[in-house]
What we know:
The protein is mainly α and 76 residues long. It has helices spanning 3-23, 27-53.
Amino acid sequence: xxxxxxxxxxxxxxxxxxxxxxxxxxxxxxxxxxxxxxxxxxxxxxxxxxxxxxxxxxxxxxxxxxxxxxxxxxxx
Length: 76
């Protein structure tokens, strides 16, 4: 992950936490809605930075390497 990817991830998490605290979100549905709004904060900031710089924030290296041979549990 690049520094900017980490920063925007942290912004989304911190935004979600703060919104949930302010609204006293309780239960799955409340927290799901708050998580979407917190993610939108980070997403909008990322899009604005990409517009200003003309470069993408998300890199192609932002993934785990694939498994060559997937192991399966033996059937019982």
